[in-house]
């Protein structure tokens, strides 16, 4: 008789979020590096997300602690990687992300930039691009750190522009420098330094970085998936493929290299790391997922927990997607109660935090409101008047601030 794989209920998966994603009050971290390791990587397309994501999970929230990890100790680095998205990962994990994903993206970025230069700028080819790169790196080495505009003073070629989408209604010009520095970052030659301005700023200088060791691609992919399954598993093959942005073949190969085991999920067959099909906590009542205390959380736009899976029905009601996501699929700020997304929040112009429940919580509505209110006060406390607007606006977030 064929043995059926273990089944993990939606309740068990939601219970894991309190512990593995450090969302239950009893499970919060003491360092930014611990948060980053627990989530594998922090979404960094919006500068504010890294800070809000980390502080939501720190026992003592501190923007200064995130600053220190990113720009002083440099224990976190940002890489254009999974799904061609900017992630902050630990310095120790960065070589695996680079070899498995970022370097392949850099190859495509280079080909795309060469194509755009040939079509939208005069006198550019691969040889001139390579010369401009070397000149930019030399200028950066001399300066120590510099913005793209500052480097353009030393390397005039960076001031030239590319006409993007010529002839289209949305045609626009971009500086060669902005594209070239992004390419150098993708290749692992440079990193973003402390922004000029507050931690919300997108204006930052660049600095050279030591080259990471080049790991075998297959080994690096297996390690990325191992860490992801430890944090987000069990999950479907489609979830892993979506999160990494890899081909289906590469995804399946990495899962096979890990010896991932089959489990049953409410949305079909899933996979888990060997030994992780069962968890002693999974059999507990869902209400005991945070050492006996039901938990609430206010998570920011693009938070890794919200964006962790392609299949989200086990924690997100599909009816709430239009309010909480923009048209490109970017998640806005969300309210969580015991492992489910139950609403959204926003910060108004005067700094006040506004939130709205979208889910009918029945008898749990009042305890959920009290817990969410407490979390909102905790968030407002460490923000201390700083105003945060998500880079990717969603319908509910816009409505709450209007």
From TrEMBL:
Pfam families reported for this sequence: AlkZ-like
Residues in the signal sequence: none
Sequence segments annotated as region (Disordered): 269-295
Name of the protein in its database record: Winged helix DNA-binding domain-containing protein
InterPro entries for this protein: AlkZ-like
Biased composition (Acidic residues): 277-292
């Amino acid at each position: 008789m064929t043995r059926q794989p273990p089944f993990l209920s939606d309740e068990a998966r939601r219970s894991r979020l309190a512990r593995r994603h450090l969302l239950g009050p009893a499970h919060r971290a003491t360092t930014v590096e611990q948060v980053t390791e627990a989530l594998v990587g922090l979404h960094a397309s919006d500068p504010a997300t890294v800070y809000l994501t980390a502080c939501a999970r720190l026992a003592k929230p501190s923007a200064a602690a995130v600053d220190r990890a990113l720009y002083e100790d440099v224990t976190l680095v940002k890489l254009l990687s999974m799904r061609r998205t900017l992630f902050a990962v630990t310095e120790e994990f960065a070589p695996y992300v680079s070899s498995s994903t970022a370097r392949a993206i850099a190859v495509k970025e280079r080909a795309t930039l060469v194509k755009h230069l040939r079509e939208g700028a005069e006198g550019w080819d691969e040889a001139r691009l390579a010369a401009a790169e070397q000149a930019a790196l030399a200028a950066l080495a001399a300066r120590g750190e510099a913005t793209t505009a500052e480097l353009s003073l030393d390397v005039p070629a960076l001031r030239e522009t590319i006409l993007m989408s010529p002839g289209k209604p949305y045609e626009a010009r971009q500086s060669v420098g902005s594209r070239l520095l992004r390419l150098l970052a993708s290749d692992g030659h440079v990193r973003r330094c402390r922004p000029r301005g507050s931690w919300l700023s997108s204006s930052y200088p660049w600095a050279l970085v030591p080259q990471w060791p080049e790991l075998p691609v297959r080994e690096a992919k297996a390690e990325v998936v191992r860490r992801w399954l430890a944090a987000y598993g069990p999950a479907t093959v489609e979830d892993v493929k979506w999160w990494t942005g890899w081909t289906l073949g590469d995804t399946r190969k990495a899962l096979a290299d890990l010896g991932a085991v089959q489990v049953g999920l409410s949305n079909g067959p899933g996979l888990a790391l060997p030994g992780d099909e069962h968890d002693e906590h999974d059999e507990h009542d869902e209400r005991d997922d945070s050492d006996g205390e039901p938990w609430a959380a206010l998570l920011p736009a693009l938070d890794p927990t919200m964006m962790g899976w392609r299949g989200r029905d086990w924690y997100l009601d599909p009816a709430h997607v239009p309010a909480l996501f923009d048209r490109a699929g970017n998640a806005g700020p969300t309210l969580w109660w015991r492992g489910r997304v139950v609403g959204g929040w926003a910060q108004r112009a005067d700094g006040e935090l506004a939130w709205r429940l979208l889910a009918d919580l029945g008898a749990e509505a009042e305890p959920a409101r009290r817990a969410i209110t407490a979390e909102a006060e905790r968030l407002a406390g460490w923000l201390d008047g700083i105003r945060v607007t998500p880079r990717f606006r969603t319908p509910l977030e816009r409505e709450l601030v209007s």
